[in-house]
Amino acid sequence: MYANDVKMSWEEVIEETRDFLSEEFEVDRDSILPENSLKDTLDLDSLDYVDLVVLIDENLNVKLTGEDFKGIVTFGDFYQLIRQKLAL
Amino acid sequence: MLIEKDAITRYIPHRAPFVMVDGLVSATRERFESELTVAADNVLVQNGFFLETGLIEHMAQTCAASFGYLDSAEGGEPKIGFIGAVSKVVVHELPPVGATVRTVVTPLHQLGNIYLVKGESSSDGRILLGCELKIVVSE
Fold this sequence. Notes:
The complex is a heterodimer. By secondary structure, chain A is mostly helical. Chain A is 55% helix and 5% strand. In chain A, strands 1-2 form a two-stranded antiparallel sheet. In chain A, strand 1 and strand 2 form a beta hairpin. Chain B has a single domain, classed as Hotdog Thioesterase (Thiol Ester Dehydrase, Chain A, Roll), CATH 3.10.129.10. In chain B, the strands form two sheets. Chain B has a six-stranded antiparallel sheet with strand order 1-2-6-7-8-5, with helices on one face. Chain B has a two-stranded antiparallel sheet with strand order 3-4. The chains are: A mainly alpha, B alpha+beta.
């Protein structure tokens, strides 16, 4: 995985993701934990999911669709989705 | 012109006095372009100038007309859409009555029935307003 032309490990991808999610959605970075609810922690409504998709695309170059979010409950689920997309 | 003024209401649900797009210049899935000449009796004209809200509504109706046209061209029915959110608004200047506004909209992302689009309106080569809209299309 490359972000900003620097090769990143999977752990670094997660940390980077926590950074931009906490900044964009103005939540405590420490609340972004694998077992926590993605929707509740980031306080997402249906329009916010578009912002999430844009963020993931811009930061990780991963394209997500509405179908991808089916079954995604926790950040752990979300990270696995991204990992599958990145084929890491 | 792809769709002239007398045919625009076939593709949008809006009716007078709230039709804020005169015609569709072009429409593909990647880019929409429309025109509006600001009439003195436009309900969103104040003190001789078309308001920011008018420009944003014009941009949203550009999306509605374009989606409607493209859906029709593909054999579907035009759908109803709503402005879900407006962001990154930058207002440079407002067009006076009589000015022709040309608006270009680019769809950026789609998530289900929600589209994130970026638009810019100009008149005589001068940029009027730019913003992003989230358009929710009824399913």
